[in-house]
Structures are given as structure tokens and as C-alpha cells.
Amino acid sequence: MNNFTDKVVLITGAGSGLGRAAAVAVAAQGATLALVDISEQGLADTRTAVLEVAPEAKTVVLTADVSDEAQVEGYVTATVEAFGRIDGFFNNAGIEGKQNPTEQYASDEFARVLSINLNGVFFGMKHVLAVMKSQNSGHIVNTASVGGIRGIGNQSGYAAAKHGVVGLTRNSAVEYGEFGITINAVAPGAIWTPMVENSMKQLHAENPEKAAEQFIQTNPTKRYGKADEVAAVVAFLLSDAASYVNAQVIAIDGGQSQKY
Ligand code: NAD
Questions:
Q1: Is the model's pTM score more than 0.90?
Q2: Is residue 140 part of a domain?
């Protein structure tokens, strides 16, 4: 399967976890890649991982903070300058933030989480959609979360931002369908990445392994998802094979969000 020959895919949060796995997945199917992250080291490691599966892949790495609109405009312009177009956009960078019940949730932390997880997604769509509209084609996948469709607790900022990502996805999807553009969101559950590893340290600093084991017992599969299992769905949604899937929020969580 080579769904991404001559396709340019832009990925934020490409320096780790789900972003890196998606980069590898689409590169293996022939994609040209623009990789964005705030972490230079993360980007370098992802580039290495991409070249392992696709030695011929064309890539640019762009260091940017997605919460800063000027930097978002910068990574979009740099991608178009490098490759002339954007066919797929995985709008994925995000942070968890410090967990706390609402009354103790720091207001500056709330603002910080929203600035990256919500503003960053909005800025990304705003600037990429201008490019895709001029092409009359494109596929966007925003990273929401099960925390964007269900209450999890102790995550005011994360929940507000991820529910916001779901809203932005539906709103923009109905605006841009007529321009040959699809916009969907993925809502991952517990996927074993550095973010979830750190989350377990927040839950139980002395014994994060035990916290991790307990946490996953309520999942129907009794295991964490793998970044590759999200990347496969993202790659499908970014490809023309998913051309009539629009405005959807796809949970990738082993069924946990449907459990009573
Ligand atoms: P991760 O921490 O492994 O990767 C996140 C990447 O985003 C990192 O490389 C980080 O440097 C980058 N990043 C953070 N802030 C940034 C900024 N301001 N500008 C640019 N890049 C920035 O985490 P992950 O698990 O791969 O998470 C990716 C996305 O998936 C996030 O939006 C997260 O909320 C979402 N998500 C993850 C899970 C999960 O279980 N792992 C579940 C639901 C949703």
C-alpha cells in the first residue's frame, strides 16, 4: 500500500509519541514530511526513525511552539516553500498539564494547557486551511482525546481544550467540505507514550508502574494502546482512501469510552 506517493504531510508534535509514529507510518507509504515540534532533539530522533523505514523520504524539520500564532504561520509557510503544498495535516501537539481537582487547578496552568492544546490546534487549522483551500484538496486530523468526549477528572484544562478540539473539528469540517477538504479528529484513550508515562508519575510518584497497571484494568482489552495503533488510523484518515469521512471523532481506546 502506497497511499502517500507525491503527498506532503505536515505533523505537529512530531518529536515524540503519536506524532512520531504517524510520521513513520506515512513515510513508509511514500510521504514527503514536514515535522514540527518544540523539541529539536525529538525532531532529530523522529527524522532518524523515518529514514530507517523510508531512506529516500524527503523531510524538513521545523522547530516551533504551536501556541504562538506567528510560529504556526512560520511552519506552514516553510512547508509550502519547501514542498509547494500540504496534502495531509496531523494537528497533534499537546501536553497533559498538572492534574488537580477543579478548585485547586491553577488558573495559569489552565491558560497554558489551553494555549497549546486548543489555540495551537486552531492556529494550525487556520493557516493550513488557507493552503488547502487554494489547492481544493486536503485532509486534516486533529488530536482530541477520550478526555474530549468524556469526563476523566482532575484535568480541567485538558478537558476544556480537548472538548474544544472536537468543536473546532466539527465546525471547520462543515465549512470546508465543499472545497475537497476533510477534517476529522482522533480521540485516543490510554496509549503508552511519554505523556502517559509522566501521567502515571503524577498519579503515583513512588510507584508509577503499579499506578499504570491499576489504571488499565478498566479497559476492555486490559492493555495500553500502542502509538502505532493510533498512527494506522491517522494515516487512513489523512489518505484519499478516507475521502468521504468528514467531521468525525474516532475513539481509539480499546472500547473503554463505551463501557458503563
Ligand atoms: P508526547 O508527550 O509523547 O508527545 C507530544 C509532543 O508534542 C512532544 O514531542 C512535545 O515536545 C510536543 N509539544 C508539546 N508542546 C508543544 C508546543 N507548544 N509546540 C510544539 N510542540 C509541542 O505525547 P503523545 O502521547 O504523543 O501526545 C500527542 C497528542 O495526543 C497530544 O495532543 C495528546 O494530548 C494526545 N493524546 C494522547 C493520549 C495518550 O494516551 N498518549 C491520549 C489522548 C490524547
A1: yes
A2: yes
